Amino acid sequence: MFYRQAGIRYTSYPAERQLWPLGIERVLMGLILALALIAPALLSPLLLSSYLLPWVIWSIAALGLNLLMGGAGQIHLGYAAVMAIGAYSATHAARAGLPFELSLLVAGLASAVIGVIFGAAALRIRGLYLAIATLAMQYIVDFAIGHIPAISGGTQATVATPTPRILGIPVEGPVGGYYIALVVCIVVTLFMLNLRRTSFGRALAAIREKDYAAEILGISAFRYKLMAFWTSSFIGGVAGAILVFCYYRSVSPEQFHLETSVQLVAMVIVGGLGSVLGTFLGAALILLAPLALSALVASLASSGLPIGSDLRAHLPLVLYGALIVGFLIAEPLGLAKLYDNARKYLLVWPFRHARS
Amino acid sequence: MLTTIRAAACAALAALPLLAQPVMAQDKVLKFATPQDFTVVYTFVTAEYNQGYRDYITLINERGGLGGIKIDVLVSDHGNAIQRGMEAFERSTRDGAILVDPLSTPVSRALVTRALQDKVNLITTMSGRSDAADGTVFPYVLPMSPSYWSQVARMVDYIRQEEKDLKGKKLAYVYIDTPFGRESLPLWEALAKKDGFELQTYPYAPPGNEQSAVWTQVRRFRPDWVFIGGGGVGQPVSIKEAIRNGIRVDRIASWVWLSESDMDVVGRAEAKGVLKFAVTEQGADSKVIKDIIAEVVDKGKGAGPKDKVGTSYYNVGVMAAALAAEGARKALEKNPTGPFTGEWLNAGLTSISKFDLGGFLPPITITPEDHQGGGQGKVARWDGVKWVAVTGWGAANQDIIWEMIRKQAAEFKATGK
Amino acid sequence: MDLALFGELIINGALVGLMYALAALGIVLVYRTSGLANLAQGAIAMLGGYLGWITIAWLGLHPILGALVAMVVMFAIGLGIERTTLRPLIGQPVIMIIMVTIGLEILMRGLVPGLLGSGVKRLDLGISDAPLFLGDMLINRTYLVSAGIALIIILATLALFNSRIGIMLRAVSDDQTASWSVGIRVEWAIAFAWGLAAVTGTAAGILWGGSQGVDWTLSLLLIKALAIAILGGLDSIVGVVVAGLIVGVAEAIASGLFDPLVGGGTRDIVACVIILATLLVKPEGLFGREHIERV
User: Fold this and answer.
1) Whole domain around residue A159: which residue ranges?
2) What is the pLDDT of residue C263?
3) Which of A61, A228, B8, B295 could in theory staple to A72 by disulfide, Cβ–Cβ 3.0 to 4.6 A?
4) Residue B261, H or E segment
5) What is the ipTM of this complex?
6) DSSP per residue over C44-65, as a string?
């Protein structure tokens, strides 16, 4: 009904390739953008700083990972280590007196350089082997960060991040941090949306489907795999820097352990491999569902529901595992597919079937 | 399609509680939040600690609260994840919590900046940074318990008394290779210099479920005493390996992280003689624990199984709750009308004076400058069935420790590290 | 560095390595039969350890009997895991399989301690802690017995693979369609492999539980198990034994030599370095069949 295709016609090639051909989707996008911009005024500080802000930041990171996993078909179980490199290099750069904007750039570049080293493994192995190799790298980066006092910050192993300054103006509090994260998120989202319309994106897709075939078509697997790791790690590094500057306000090794990597992969998979919208939805579900459940269980327990404290405390973990397993079995294409189904249904409504 | 609808329904259900409005805070209730790690690293302590904490608060409430004002404990799990710890911190302070006790070193470290900014009392009993004892730099971070530095110093002092003189003796510090285990290394070096003993340190990889290679080296060193510095699964493994490597059981010492269940894992009889630092009276014979059993547990209001009442970590939980409640009582004395904010409670907490809970605790005095409260404790020995105190309350080498505290706190102030 | 210290490190490291190898066996069994990644093996071992605790410490069965009961139950659980979560995902990309097993791992790590209690539990297998000296070298008695049992189980599995059932499993791993056409029930074979993986995981969980106590940290055996499986070759049972010995000895020597130098626990890093080195130099492992597609 709302998803009307009638009256859409193109008079130029660029028009035909626009991101959202349907009017309703453009309206929706505008609406979401507007809501995102005025969110600090609408939401309570708790919702903003504990739910919306981390959601936006984790979405940036998950988008970066999705570029690699969904776009280029490379498995990465060490993405948190890449973020850690960004977070630490940005923190130390900013503490050394570099402006915040440049520190973000340093974060991205440092992560990209080391991320490419991760990627070098992908030139030789793939699939399960690549997954295990990246897993091992995650542990090695963890170890290096934890055991070099110059990086981790000495006995207390926590380094406070300086207040970010945009053009010299200090940005304090969750609202400022939210806008920084939002701007980065919009940039990364636009990049990801446009990716599939570029030769780079198409080359990645070719490699994802079959790297031999891509090579025969004249796409250098060597070059594009490394480029995929470079780009994705750059985004990851920036996301890690944003995470510690705007949200954690301090950086410590525990923030970027293997669990974080697994969480990111879960976001991408539950959201839908290769889907931008799905990444946002996946990040929301994986991040917020356990939080929401522990809040729910806490309120149920205080109203006298007899569940043991051990079980109660473990329920969010159970739910988190169940979400991953359940989604993979029920809908391997993820949350993005759910939206796609609804959209396809509405496209032909009130009829049930049509050419999609 | 059916499966997708089902999945969508699941997703919607999961998102529901987000929309639910919080229960409005009632008047005349103080809220203490205990978001703690029930699931990941601190599993060995959290359940018992939290049970003791809640049981003591229930005891206060059953007796009519603090002059009619009841205390509400908000419990949640943060799984030692900073992300979730922060969320819990924000949520509970929004719900009106004026005191947060995360019982996790990484989470409390990450919360320090927030607590200082938001003026919420961050309690770091038996966790968190040792230098938070300096109240001038960390006004809202309150360990209110002997830091690991104080515990190590006390145990070394006990060893010195046992040996008469430590000159030429060999001490080994076997520790878990995390910031928590590494934190006391500078103190060990300072003590070795002062007392003249020979020190060797041996890190093992976390979580410490396999330490044989480390102990092979410890045995070569032929130490007179071994101090094991870990927590959780690594502790009983350390003791087992020490026994196996021919180290006398009564020459093994540790800090507060040894409990009855660790002794179970080693074997109660085999572990006879192990020493540890105790911050509270041991066992269920103290008056306050008997009161809890009579007035809370036996009335079916206990927060957990009865057989855990009076265990080491349960008693530590009681201690943390008692100090928090005493702080609130002091705050009410100072300013009975409120408003009941973090600042209000902080004034009370920092004026706790010679509080010993009927002998259950050493006399603890917290001032705006000293957030540690004296660093006193007993040395307790495992007699095969229970922990038995072998000394009275006492502290040692506090001058060295305060020098280190001031140095590190000043560093934090200067650099934010 | 005196020789006795060196010898002691090597012997105890080798024993520990064999115990790790038992945990790695489950990964190899599943990969060998079905080509699937099994990253849930750590949690399976944990669950097995808890079941062993139930039968031995709680119900008071004799350790051997209790372990057997736990293994039987776990065989059924292994079949169940395959039927409910792995079979629906046949034909999905590798990352899906990896993720579903990680999801299972998380699920079990929440559910099992949630239901049975998260505190460390004592599991007494009746092995004495008294030191056992070989010249000047101390051999860890628990590890010696456990490693012996681990070796027996691994050899039994190897024997099984040479029996009629084993030939069937090997046929399935060679070519599923061809096996189907000669009348082998492929689904059954894969399910059997998962059951077997659960059984060996249980043995690993119980043996490790006996030496460290039973709690969720048993699931951390995964990374060691992966290192061994990769080094030995993901489809080689002999490789598991050899790689287990290598990883165990390397870890022990590394913590003997490097820990004092870097002032940290280097043990975990050794496993990771072994993984990386193997994958970059000889991805199929020491004894694996060379059928990996190189890029």
Assistant:
1) 43-348
2) 65
3) A228
4) helix B260-266
5) 0.89
6) HHHHHHHHHIIIIIIS---HHH
pTM: 0.89
**What per-residue confidence (pLDDT) applies to C295?**
45
Report the half-sphere exposure of B235 (CA within 13 A, side-chain side).
27
From the list A140, A221, A314, which residue is nearest C110 (CB)? Answer: A314
Angle subtended at Cα A61 by Cα A56 and Cα A64, rounded to the nearest 5 degrees: 125
What gap in Å lies between CA B94 and CA B85, rounded to an integer? 14
Residue B209 DSSP class: S
Are residues B219 and C138, on separate chains, in Cβ contact within 8 Å?
Answer: yes
Identify whether A293 is part of a domain. Answer: yes
Any chain A CB within 8 A of the CB of C279?
Answer: yes
Give the H/E segment covering residue B306: none
Choose among C92, C114, C275: nearest Cβ to A318: C114
In the block, tokens 């010249």 appear at: C135
For residue A260, give how far its alpha carbon lies from the nearest alpha carbon of chain C (Å).
13
Residue B220 touches partner C, C-beta closer than 8 Å: yes
Q: Give Cα separations from B95 to A52, A178, B341 (angstroms).
A: 18, 22, 12
Q: Where are the alpha helices (DSSP H) in chain A?
A: 13-16, 23-42, 45-46, 53-66, 79-95, 100-122, 128-147, 149-152, 173-195, 199-209, 211-216, 221-242, 258-271, 276-302, 309-330, 335-348
Residue C47 is part of which domain span?
7-215
Closest CA to C43 of C91, C92, C93, C114: C114
Q: How far apart are CA B372 and CA B131, in angstroms?
A: 9
- Taking only the tens place, the pLDDT of each residue in B147-175 is 999 999 999 999 999 998 899 999 999 99
Instruction: Count the domains in chain C.
Output: 1
Could you tell me if residue A13 is inside a domain?
A: no
Token representation of residue B43: 């599993």
The residue among A325, A331, A333 with the most chain C CBs within 10 A of its CB, best to mutate, is A325
Query: What CATH number was assigned to the domain covering residues B24-146+283-375?
Result: 3.40.50.2300
Closest CA to C231 of C276, C291, C290: C276
Q: C170 lies in a domain? A: yes
Residue C286 falls within a domain, yes or no?
Answer: no
B68 near B28, Cβ under 8 Å?
Answer: yes
Q: Which two tokens stand for residue C214?
A: 């039973």
pLDDT digits (tens, 9 = 90+) for B253-312: 999 999 888 898 888 998 999 999 999 999 999 999 999 999 999 988 888 888 889 999
Helix (H) or strand (E) run with residue C212 in it: helix C186-212
CB within 8 Å of B166: residues ≥ 6 apart? B156, B159, B160, B195, B196, B197
> Is residue A223 assigned to a domain?
yes
Radius of gyration, CA atoms only, chain C: 19
Mutation for testing the A interface, residue in B43, B48, B61, B76 having most A CBs under 10 Å = B76
Does residue B26 register a pLDDT over 60?
no
Residue-wise pLDDT for B244-253, tens only, equals 888 999 999 9
Specify the DSSP class assigned to residue B144.
Answer: -
* A139 has a pLDDT exceeding 60: yes
Q: Are A316 and C110 a contacting pair at CB < 8 A? A: yes
| Mutation for A interface: B6, B70, B75, most A CBs within 10 A | B75
- The CATH number covering residue A337 comes to 1.10.3470
Q: What is the mean pLDDT of chain B?
A: 87
Residue pair B248/B326 in contact (Cβ under 8 Å)? The answer is no
Angle at A69 between CA A68 and CA A74, to 5 degrees: 80
Of C205, C217, C186, residue with least CA distance to C26? C205
Q: Which CATH number fits domain B148-278+382-398: 3.40.50.2300, 2.40.128.630, 1.10.3380.30, 3.90.650.10?
A: 3.40.50.2300
Compute the distance between CA of residue B226 and CA of residue B242 in angstroms, rounded to an integer: 8
In a domain, A353, yes or no: no
Q: Is residue C255 part of a domain?
A: no
C49 touches chain A (CB under 8 A): no
